[in-house]
Amino acid sequence: MATSSTKILDHLVHLTPPGTVEEASQQFRDLGFTVTHGGTHAGGLTANALVILGDGAYLEFISFTHPASHYPPGSPDRQKRDANPWAWKAPGWIDYAFLGSSTVSISNIINERAKQDGSGVRYVPEVDGGRVREDGKMLEWVISAPDEVHVRGTVPFFCGDVTPRGWRVPTEPPSNSEHPTGAQGVAHVRLLARAESLGSLSAQLASVVGDPPQVNTMRAEHIWKLKTPSGVPSARKPLLVLSAPKNDDEEAYLDARGPGIFEIAFLSDAMPFRQAADTIYELEQHRYRSPLIH
Question: In what residue span(s) does the Glyoxalase-like domain sit (predicted)?
Answer without folding.
Answer: 9-195
